[in-house]
Amino acid sequence: MTEWDIKKLRVLRTLRDRGTVTATAEALLMTPSAVSQQLSSLSRQLGVPLLEAQGRRVRLTDAAHLVLRHAEAVFARLERADAELTGYLRGEAGEVRVAAFSTAVPALVVPAIQRLRAEGRPGPEVRVREAEAARAYELLAAGDVDLALSLTAHAPTAHDPRFAVRPLLADPLDVALPAAHPLAAAPALRLADLSGDPWIFGGSGPWSQITTAACEAAGFVPEQAHSASGWTAILAMVEAGMGVALIPRMASAERHGGRHGVVMRVLEADQPRRHVVAAVRQGAEHGPAVARVLVALGSAAESFTSAERKL
Question: Distances in Å between the alpha carbon of 166 and those of 91, 140, 160?
């Protein structure tokens, strides 16, 4: 029977994810030489070539990809076994490390922790780490966190075997207008009504893509007058009359308070949304501690959705 070495398989998977031997060594706190030795040893054990030269770099062979397809199922079973063993040893009071993007922390993570504390029984210790939504899966794959809140736009693929993904909510995007804007009090507002306005959004990255995609779906390309990535900066510029912006409901609920020069309008039609998800490593969702945090996050998302429907 072929010998399967879990440690070496993890090295191979990391090389696939990181792309180079140097990046793999950095991620695993190894030397590049040690990485190469581990992969050469695995290739001999399996009896197939796993790497081939591509210029000054290496790439995985078809045999390596075949091996990893089966290895992912093994990794998932090990995650599940680890989760169940942790639950057996600690009951439900294990530690769950959560990574969440900035607006998800006050809107979902904090309410979820409050719900766990209000249950009146020992619960998992939740450690929160603020991280950009785009980095969530990287932290999760590296084992730096146990659960990550991200957006569907950042998922590596729709069916990545490394992760179990659960939808939490569809966060509506409202439009922020200066109080003196001629459409600030319009009885009904569509995104297309703002096609001639100057817009404020990030110069690159996911939020730029979300804004431009929403406007293009409404029939126009937004004129980017100013670039900013932080909601405080964006709302300050809107308040100063420098342009208009799309703001996630999760962000506007936290940041808008006290800004009398900004009017938040719910779009009557073509309401764009961003989809928030919770992700864990495949198999880890069966652990009692992680499962309880997922349930609490789901309840927090339902409460947030119910509240925003009343707007």
Answer: 24, 14, 13
CA distance 305 to 23: 41
- Which residue, 137, 179, 171, 148, is CA-closest to 273? 171
Its pTM stands at: 0.71
Residue 165, amino acid: V
The answer to whether residues 264 and 252 touch, using CB atoms and an 8 Å cutoff, is yes
Q: What is the pLDDT of residue 91?
A: 54
DSSP conformational letter for 250: H
pLDDT of the residue at 308: 67
**Residue owning tokens 């004129």:** 223
CA nearest to 7, candidates 63, 78, 61: 78
Which H or E run includes 208?
helix 206-217
CB atoms within 10 A of CB 246: 26
Which has more confidence, 30 or 54?
30
Average pLDDT in the 60-66 region?
Answer: 92
Instruction: Kindly state the average pLDDT of the residues 299-304.
Output: 94
Give the pLDDT confidence of 220-235 residue by residue, as tens digits: 999 999 998 788 899 9
Round to whole Å and give the CA distance between 258 and 275: 27
Q: What is d(CA 251, CA 265) in angstroms, rounded to the nearest whole number? A: 14
Report d(CA 275, CA 96) in Å as an integer.
23
Q: What is d(CA 204, CA 227) in angstroms, rounded to the nearest whole number?
A: 9
